[in-house]
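[audit] Reproducing an earlier prediction to check determinism. Same input, same settings, fresh worker. If the tokens differ from the archived copy the diff job will pick it up downstream; this log only records the rerun itself.
[audit] input (1131 residues):
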Amino acid sequence: MTTSILEKNESLIEMNPSLKQMSRPMIASIKEYYSNPSRKGWESIQQYSIGPHTVSSLYEMFSGSMDRPESSEFEAFLLYITKDLRIIRTEKEGKVFEAFVKMILLNEDDSTLVGISLAGSLSACRAIHALFYEQKEVMVTNFFSGEVKFYKSTRNYRRIEEVHSKVCHTFLLPRVAIVQEYNEACLEADANNKAHPPRILMSRGNINELAGQFIAQKFNLPKTRDWADLYLSLIPKDKWTTIKTIQTDLDDVEETITTIQINTMKEEEVLSCIDQAIIDGTLNVFSSTNTTSNVVFDDGMTTEDYLRKNAEILSTKMEMYLKPLYNGQTYTKYIGMTNRICLPAQARAVMGILTILKEGYSAFLNADMGCGKTQMSLTASYVLSQEQHSRGSHSGISVLITAPSITIPKWAGEEIPKVLGEHHTRIRVINSTEDALDYVRKVKSKESKVPSGTIEFVLVSTDRMKLTANKFICSAIWNHRTQNWRCPDCYQPIKSPKPKDAEAGIVASWKDIVEYPKYPPTIEELNEARLDKTITPAGLPRSYVNRYTSFIRQLQCECKSPSIKDDQEPKKHKIKKNCTLARPALKSRGEDRNKVRWMIAEIFQKHLKGHFKLGIFDEIQQMKASNSGRGLSFHKLLKSCSKAMFLTGTLTSGISSSIQSTLWRSDPQSLINEGFEHSTSKELWAQKYGVLEKVTYHDVNDGNAGRTTNRRAEKVSLKEKPGIAPQLVAKHLLHKSVFVELSDLGLPLVSLREEPVIVDLEDEHGQAYREFEQELYDTCMKMQSDLGSKAWSYYASAVLNYAAQPSHDCTVEFTDDKGKLLSRVSPKVFDESYTTAVEQKLVEDIRKELANDRGCIIFTNFTNKYKTNERIQKILSEVNIDATILDKSTTTSMGRFDWLEEQKQQGTKVLIMNAALVQVGLDLLLWPNLMFWQLNDDINAVRQAGRRAWRIGQTKECTVRFYVAKNTHQMKQFEHLMKKRIAALLVEGRIERSDKIAKFATDNESGLTRDLANNLSAAELTETWKSAAEKDIDEKLNVVSEEDYPAAINEAFKILTAETKRLCGVSDFEPEIPRKVEDKKSIGMDHIQGISVSKTEKTLKIDIIQYKTTPVRIKMKNSETFIQDQLVFDF
């Protein structure tokens, strides 16, 4: 027996005061038994006490037996009782809970418990966790010696637990020791302008490395190991402390755990330490690799100057340390085997997307308008399909495409057949709930199994995917006797859906649920309904309720479901989730005239989880809102996709929160790790990743004093401004995004010219406008005290439209919440035959363009109340110019594409429409002249609509004109849009801060300013807009004249498509994936559901991509013969 074991046992025995005098005989008896184990010796030492336990009880605990141990087993037993085992015990409601201590973290005073690790039953660990909040001190007892120590509780712990084989391992840690909790605390501190909390770090290895990486991340310092490992030693000793760590013998971790706390530091303090370390040589600023030159920094340099001066050196460093996921050197052959071949830049983008999707769940394809996002996404789908086919899979893949309604026919009727051909694709358009349920049924019954090598495209529009029931009705039962609503399951009164009333225990009344009629049915009406057998299950006469309140969807009952016999079932499963008592109205019960409808996105989420190999979400910026119908439906559809690809031309709108919800829905874990939640506000997000403007209003004359003190409240306004932190791009976008610019394609484009057309109003119109605007402005200022911001609701629309068409009555009435008329402002109404100066200029420009056989589109904005479309059509018809109106009443969103195709066939030269109807997805090549008669306040909508005609394939010079009435509110609106455009160009990097037009990006106005005194002159406004328009076009683009364009584009396509085939290793006569000849009758567009597609063969709409197919007979090694339609360009 070793001396150390005996000494430890002696100390254990001597710790029992009652056995102090007997300790020597007891130790002697133990030694004797070890030397000569006998029954008599064992009987003599069994009742000896070691600590609070007897030898026999300890041995039974050790071996599970009361038999006499042999010498070797007895030695192991003595070694066992010398281990450091500690327990925490608590008693609650007559039950005793015990858990073993694995680790203790102590503060500098050796008495305050920073953290603790436990092992025991789940109930015991949770009971002890509660103990830390119930008592100021917690008692920890040594299991063998009975030694007791008291530790102070901080009452600030986060419980982390993991259960293995009924043993719960729990770690109670301070909030600042957990990454997510620490980041949340930092966000809260930023929001309240407080210092960040201290950080606790634990490491089983090199604590200097872990602390260095934290400091580098926290203060944006270099993360190279030779620097980071030194950061902890550089900061002052009073800025960090070592936390005492006690590991008991129950902790099976062999390495020693080191714990430190880094206290709050300011960035200036850290940077000062780093500067000093660089000066004294502790930190080596020179790379270990040989460099031929050093960076240059001169006094007075801006960041932009520094980057330009050292661009070559910095780019070399970036290439050294930043390795792209895809280097552009390898290509899959399948890219060169589609019907319409990608250009080399598009092929690189496809490879980049595929590389990203192999590493993660989602990828962003951010490409300029006209770059071919559809082509690239379909090619990526084809590559995934063929790779799966080559691996021997017996089934094809299903791909979900979500796009705006206006582009769905184009995807199904043109893009998919032309890019991939009909042999490799199936197309199904989901237009209704029935379509969605039918598809789910076929998938589950395997009726429509996708053949190997084939892609099944399922298309659903962003407008259809979000539609839920036409209307909801209440399924609760109305109790006439008690005058309240009751649950149909338990028949108990239901709490009010209003949060405050529900907390007070108030039950739901008639007015809480029903808006009209205002009163419930009388007893006579109920009796009559019973006699007529028209009483409904809700206890009301049929069709009695005309309209429900907005609270109907929040009506819930928390009654229990049938009891569960298994007592082990967690309690949360015994109580059913709160379910709304609103249900869709049923046509069969006479509750609705329309058939039942349900959300397509929710059907796919519930029944087709992970079914689609790939989800393609077009125009993802339209789904960015966190609480919109599109945004919520997008979130649901993601659950049915194994991988997701997001297509957009405007990834952000210039502010950081515009990408927040998309990132959360596609990759929540990365945001959770930083402390964000689904409920994180835009302000907290912008605090870290954007620009947040905080304005505090002080008014010495404000009489809002406190109730019991003279404290006066400060009004604080938070507003997010344009600007995105580089960390957002680096952490969440750069590694999952592919960027393609129009100039990357290497294709020429015709010239594009933008010009504001600013026209003076005629004297009579101008005088009437000024009088109306001034009177309306004064009235709005006067009404603002009574109506608040509501007073300005119609200001902008009234003055904008009166400047455009004074023949329309633009009267503005001011009413209170009860509908009482407070004031009215009416302008002079001109005769309908009166034509404004701007209208005359519009007619003149259209005549010139039509004389040169150039089609025109006139974009409007106010098309309902003010009938702007009809007004323009009227004045054009008076000069014998035929114009056709496109609006929501004449076409559906999905029928808009077909309507435009029809206008092409008819040769319509002038179209009038709201710009919002065609801002995405459509090519308006036949109409190269776009005329903005009215503007939209959304600069993204204006920019996108203005590029609908200027695309690859356009052979005529394009012009975009903006018609503005001089010295009116239209000029201020145009100036406001110009500032937004310049701000967006700054964010996109198209202009620099040093550019002369960058000063106009600062716009602190909330909405359109009502002060016309600071307007830019017409000449300044025109010149600045043209400069911004030039910056909006990539300077690397090859812009050619209208005459030289056909030859230039033909030559470019010929060279670039050949280069793509060469990169992919595909020869002109190499067959696609072999497949047997199919019956030609079974191919075609018959399998496209939901839209009508002509079966007649059509030439491609873009003249430069006309091609024909030549059948080539190919004989394979297995003697089978295949027929391949070989692509041949006809230049």
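[audit] rerun output stored. Observation attached for the diff report: The longest helix spans residues 763-787.
[audit] end
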